Amino acid sequence: MADSFEAKGKRKKLVVELRSKGITDEEVLRAINRVPRHEFMDPAFLNHAYTDKAFPISSGQTISQPYTVAVQTSLLKVKKRDKILEVGTGSGYQAAILAEMGAKVYTIERCRELYLKAQKTLAILGYSAEFFYGDGYEGKPQYGPFDGIIITAAVAEVPEKLLQQLKTGGRLVVPLGDMSSQVMTLVVKKEDGQYEYSYHGTFAFVPMLKGTAK
Ligand code: SAH
Q: Fewer Cβ atoms within 10 A, N terminus or C terminus of the chain?
């Protein structure tokens, strides 16, 4: 489905809504205004694509709520050509937002069906990203270290291997908590090698699972 006047209008309204909810990063809002979220969902759900809600995709997974994508992306403070690792490709929408902002995106998905589908969607839309099918707990050390790491599934604690793949000055954004709710956590790796933690509201993500699936 091509982008349409109607979809563009709905995105503009979504951006207004996100501003009213406290999102101020202009680059993030610009990217949300440009990326056609409906292309990442079943075409039957065009009317749902631009409401500020998470939505089911295939394999029992969800495309994150636009507000959540906006919060996580704002916390990353993405600059052009930054190397960003995403764990949990899902629909590929978050990866497209990062690509739209000029980042070099590396994204890992444990579910093969989603990995294949997201790759197609981004190619059709003309966004480039490096896709990997595998267990995100391992990260991608051969492509690191990264300026930013974004985990889009819930974990109880920050995976150590991912922390190790962060540059000095790099930022890792992760929903930390149990299955029912998580606190959006920003970890910044400081010059002295210490990690600085800060907390940014409560969210509900699907869990990060070990290993891979079909
Ligand atoms: N960022 C996505 C939403 C992600 S939903 C989007 O923009 O649409 C969380 C995703 O994390 C799911 O697709 C799930 O399959 C994936 N996931 C869960 N555990 C994982 C792991 N260990 N490694 C990689 N992906 C994982």
A: C
